[in-house]
Write a structure and sequence with these properties.
By secondary structure, this protein is an alpha+beta fold. It is built from 7 helices and 4 strands; from the N terminus they run αααβββααβαα. A 4-stranded antiparallel beta sheet has the order 1-4-2-3. It is globular, with a radius of gyration of 18 Å. The relative contact order is 0.19.
């Protein structure tokens, strides 16, 4: 074994606390704020596993979406955590399915955004794509995305907040 191979092998060995750090983040559960959020219209969330087989289940319509980590098939009670909110009105030709496929490509090739890439690498088999098709303006979608992100401050969101919360987030995350 060369010195390079030995160094690479040693870098892969981790202590239990390293695994806990890699799999941890802060969750905000301000229930009153969560209950106050209202979209431009009533809607219901749908969800699919974040995998290639689910592409056709995601509609070719604009809307709002979220990623959540849902660790299932264990002896623990089912539990999930929202880690990102987005909207498909801007940058994806306004279609939820196109946005879903863009993320799948990022999962395979490595996402451009560091926190999204961490999400894909750390929980590759536990991600769920939640979505709601909405018939509203791009501005309404952006506002809803910001409102949802303001309430939850998901770990993978960095800029999709109102101006007020955007100022607070760095303090909360330090």
């Amino acid at each position: 074994m060369s010195a390079f191979d030995l160094a690479a092998h040693k870098a892969q060995l981790k202590e239990p606390e390293d695994y806990y750090r890699q799999h941890s983040f802060t969750v905000y559960l301000w229930s009153d704020l969560w209950r106050k959020i209202a979209g431009p219209q009533a809607f219901e969330w749908s969800e699919v596993a974040f995998e290639d087989a689910a592409v056709d289940a995601v509609p070719m319509e604009p809307g709002i979406y979220a990623f959540k980590i849902a660790i299932r098939d264990t002896i623990m009670p089912e539990h999930s955590v929202i880690v990102y909110f987005g909207q498909s009105g801007a940058g994806s030709d306004g279609k939820l399915r196109k946005r879903f496929k863009q993320y799948l490509r990022g999962k395979k090739r490595g996402a451009k955004r560091i926190l999204i890439d961490r999400l894909f690498r750390t929980w590759p088999n536990d991600l769920v794509f939640c979505y709601a098709a909405l018939d509203c303006t791009e501005d309404e979608l952006l506002k809803l995305e910001n409102d949802l992100s303001d309430a939850a401050i998901p770990m993978c969101s960095t800029m999709d907040f109102s101006a007020h919360v955007r100022r607070i987030v760095p303090v909360l995350r330090s």
